[in-house]
Amino acid sequence: MSTQPSSTGASTPSSSLNNATDDADSLRRQRILSSKLYFDVPLTKAPIIYSTSYDISFLGIEKLHPFDSSKWGRICGFLIENGTLEKTRIVEPLEATKDDLLVVHSEAYLDSLKSSVNVSIITEVPPVAVFPNCIVQKKVLYPFRKQVGGTILAAKLAKERGCAINVGGGFHHCCADRGGGFCVYADISLCIHYAFIRLNISRVMIIDLDAHQGNGHEKDFSNDRRVYILDMYNPNIYPFDFEARRYIDQRVEVPSGTATEEYLMMLDEALQVAENAFDPELVIYNAGTDILDGDPLGRLKISPHGVTTRDEKVFKFACDKNIPLVMLTSGGYMKSSARVIADSIINLSNKSLITMGG
């Protein structure tokens, strides 16, 4: 009778774990390759992605949240009014399907959105809880899924044109299995995984300049050295996610009351450090305008001109090194936010940091 260890083919716990990871990676790759969210955009179109479906209108109850849920359409309206953008040159994205969302999200999390109560908690609009979920899906979640499609497509467009702006997206509080802070789907994480596979990109830098900490993407990429995160945020406001802060590669904490000049100096220093620390093939720029003076949630004191200068600095950072850049509009809780974003995009166009097509 042999006393040698049995070789029956039974797997060890570590090999089982590796097999499960390989299977998950294979399924993710399959979903990404079969997705219709990437499509060819004619050169006559501008690298501006938007759909009228982005704007949330739900019997007026959307006004119970401080976020301006018609902001996205108003931004495009200002750009068209100014003559910077022609309506026919806007790129319309597709809606992210369940299979698209499963690239990052768990089945359990997506199933949880079939509860209107859960959606009301994530969007921070309590009355949503009382509506049938079919209405919530159409009036609340569909606009978010369209914006996810826009963020994912923006990476392809940025690779082709040098930069692209999704006039929406930037849901940086959502991770694979949890939403919050008006962020239902993890569009930044999804965009990056699509870029890894479809664009053959292996190094991505997230520059998150929304006033709030981007805890969602930080959790999703906590152990992924392909992603470098520069997060410049106010530590004295939501989400107070101390675990996720450990996953930030470059943490720049901006205390309440910080004014424009100091903020821009901090940004210059941060971009210099980032440039020396990491060599990205794609930059995802989360350009929240909740840093504006007077924003009730951001609690910073940055002028509209300061926002324009901030955006210009980030675009130059990427442009000087010929790195494709995706800009997302993210947070901003004042009616004036749409005008400020539009003015910033007009400045980027005037400085030839973005070409509007045609």
TrEMBL record:
Cofactor dependency: Zn(2+)
The question of whether tRNA-binding is a record keyword is answered with no
Database matches in SUPFAM superfamilies: Arginase/deacetylase
Reaction(s) catalysed by this chain's protein: N(6)-acetyl-L-lysyl-[histone] + H2O = L-lysyl-[histone] + acetate
Q: Which GO terms describe its cellular component?
A: histone deacetylase complex
Query: Where does the UniProt annotation locate this protein?
Result: Nucleus
Q: Where is this region: Disordered?
A: 1-23
Its predominant location is: nucleus
Record bears the keyword Hydrolase: yes
Name this polypeptide is given: histone deacetylase
Q: What is the taxonomic lineage of the source species?
A: Eukaryota, Viridiplantae, Streptophyta, Embryophyta, Tracheophyta
Give me the gene this protein comes from.
HDA2
